[in-house]
Amino acid sequence: MNRMILGAVSALLLAGAGLFWWQGQASVDASAPPPPPALGIEGDQPSGLPLEELPDEDGSGMRGAAPPEADDASKEEKRFNRVDRNRDNLVSRTEMLQPRVAAFRKLDTDHNNLLSFDEWSVATNNRFRGADGNGDGTLNRGEFAKTRPKPSKKPACRC
Fold first, then answer.
1. On the chain, which terminus has fewer CB atoms closer than 10 Å, C or N?
2. pTM
3. According to the model, what pLDDT value does residue 13 have?
4. Per-residue pLDDT at 90
């Protein structure tokens, strides 16, 4: 009995060792590109590039076109599209209040629903009514732009 167990264990060990040896036989492709040049010791600049050819910290000396920057219109467009769930280019009262349901549930920490949704959403309803200039119950893109949050004031650095 012991010989059978010892034989099975040794067979498994030999099979595992053979598997690791077989997996470890890596071959280097002759057409593989050479590794990137190592960094130089002084100044950590790539070897082979003179210091004058590297871009400055302000971005001058960079090659190629500058990446496009997002303007306010595209940011506002993204914000509108996040709220307009059914993509009809109109924001209904339900669509405006829907993202705030999770925040309401977070406020009701004891889960007894004593905080009514109407009490919580008074500010949002007032904001919606203030932005809905024509009173039709929906916001078009121009009216929705009025609901844009005020930019937060960044504190001055006390360096």
1. C
2. 0.32
3. 87
4. 92
